[in-house]
Amino acid sequence: MTDADLSKGELLERLRAQVTSREARLRPSPYPAPAELVGLLDGGLKPGAAYSLDTSGALLAALLAGPSADGHWCAVVGVPEFGAEAAGHAGVVLDRLVLVPDPADQWLAVTAALVEAVPVVAVRPYGRVREADAARLASRLRDRGSVLLVDGAWPRAEARVTLGEACWSGVGPGHGYLNSREVTVTVSSRRLPAARSVRLVLPSPDGRLAPIDRPVVAEPAAVLRAVG
Amino acid sequence: MSTRVVEPTPRVVESPQTPREAGGDRCLVLWFPGWPVTAWALSEGADVHQPLAVVVANRVVACSPEASAEGVVTGQRRREAQSRCPTLRVLPADEARDNREFAAVLDCVEQLVPGVQVVRPGVCALRSRGFASYVGSEAEAAEVLLESVVTTLDIATGRAGVADGLFAALQAAYAGDPVRVVPSGESAAFLAPLPVSRLGDETLTTLLPRLGVHTLGGFAALGPTAVRDRFGQHGLRLHTLASGADPRVVQPRVPPPELVRQIAFEPPLSRIDQVAFTARSTVEQFIAGLSAAGLACTELRIEFTGDLDEFVARTWGTPGMFDAPAVVDRIRWQLQAAAGDQLGSAVTGMRLEPVVVDALANHVPGLFGTGTDERVHHVLSRVQGMLGHDGVLTPRIGGGRWLAERQELVPWGDRPSPASPSAPWPGSLPDPLPTTVFAEPRPVHLLTAGGRGVAVDDRGMLHDVPTQLRDGEERRTVIGWAGPWPIDERSWDPVRHRRASRFQVVDGTGTAWLLVLQGSHWWAEGRYD
Asked: Burial letters for B280-308: b for 16+ Cβ neighbours within 10 Å, e otherwise?
């Protein structure tokens, strides 16, 4: 069977597979991301890439949890109010977590130093990010194969992850306790024209990221009335 | 098995000027009464001239002269001591502290006489012969030693005794005011009138008086065979002591190896890299000295002195052990941090002191893969050099009810304080926890529809319905809220007592807040974002 016998679609498929396998050989494997976000992030956090995130501790902790559980070190730069205990419950191993709460205007130098040895670095830029600084850091990231998670805007980010339509459950007017939050996570990647989104539970009652499992039958409970 | 009783054998007189001191093994004992109290005062930097008592198992084991003057005695019950002296300050016993502080006294004595034996913290013994003939007489020797302790450490309670053998010298020190010298060969006569309780043996102290033997002399008069038949080998040993023939000789302690290294820069150096370069060989000696002793330094103190008498000191920690390049790095960083404000002139001297050491065997690099952590440590140390020691932190979850106090941030390389996070903390939050914890309380306002602040009454009940959350200039609508959950902690401590109510509030944008009402002030403890 020659190539001419193949239909156009089959040929395209085969070429694509070849390209993917070659790329896979060249590129190191991505850092693990939560299973619910793997599809949106093209398989995980790509080594050498920068991701721009919405300001959300739960999202940051969920993204740090995968590499941290895999035995990698993580660092959080410039976030003085990082909730370490919540991050621990979300799956981040605190023994391999480093905080640099207040680097002030040295944040770029600190981040550049950290990516040398720490595979996943989260950073909240102090002031505006210059295009040239971002490019220099990007080349270092590619060289070291580290991932940068940026709380805020970042020039030439691999993808932007945003949260929307948050809806907390568990608390009513004057009663209850916060239980979980349903939220839409949207990933707009540089490589894809359209943004992709998914509805998730973040955080779930145990503090982690979880898929939505709706009750199969939402029978309204019988209304009880005081009698007598 | 039998023990040979060693009788003091008179030796040939060697120095005709001081025939008195030429006995067998002349022993000089220095005794510091109430040492646990003195040690406490030294370690706390407190005044010893107040009624103090150290108590073990509800009994006074040591007290200060002021407490004795009020009627407190050793062996008394704590309650009784407190009733005799209501202002008595009761201190916990700490044997490690007693030993640690006594090391300073030993150092002071060893400056004058080598070969000191520590009998127990507060009592040390040494051979008096050499030093006594150097000074002139035994009494003068004892006075010189006591004087040196007074001038160096300001401890004036010391007493000294000189006699044949350790036991007699100790008894002489107890009788000293401040110095008591028992001439050679007269130990037995000196000991004879003392009560048998001085032997420090409970069985004999109660038994001998019942047998009609009240003094050491009486005990010594008994035949050794009879004593051995009735009290065994232990009794025979005490009988030997009571006869003034202590077979023990002073066992000089081996002074600990000198691990501290110093270097003086001549001429003073004004550039950091010059200091780092010149100090390198000293640092290598320092590390080699530690390795020779089988030790690895995990906490290091570096001190610099400047030309204008500045003094800069700092203690550095490390998760691993310090090697020579790491110490040189610390020297450089410390100088960089101190340059300008703390250290304005050239450096004249440097001192390296190991604060915490560990067995070297615990720090040998593993055969396989410690690589990553080593690299991380190196990078984090570099960032620490940029931002300072407190710039790089590792989180650790400790105990407490408040989120900010639960997460303990430990500078990289420092030892976390021991805590008990597993202890039940009633009032602490269940999952999910706020992902944002404000290190500083963030003032907010929770308002009712009428614009009044929401308040909680004395019974912890809420009467108003919150409708608006004001965070700075931002106004947010409240769509859900829960609480109040009261926290009332340390009600026994008027300073740290804290009473507050916690609320959870969800605002219109879908952000949830953990708010705290303390008094009439609202603040945000955390945010669920």
From this structure: eebbbebbebbeeeebbbbbbbbbbbbbe
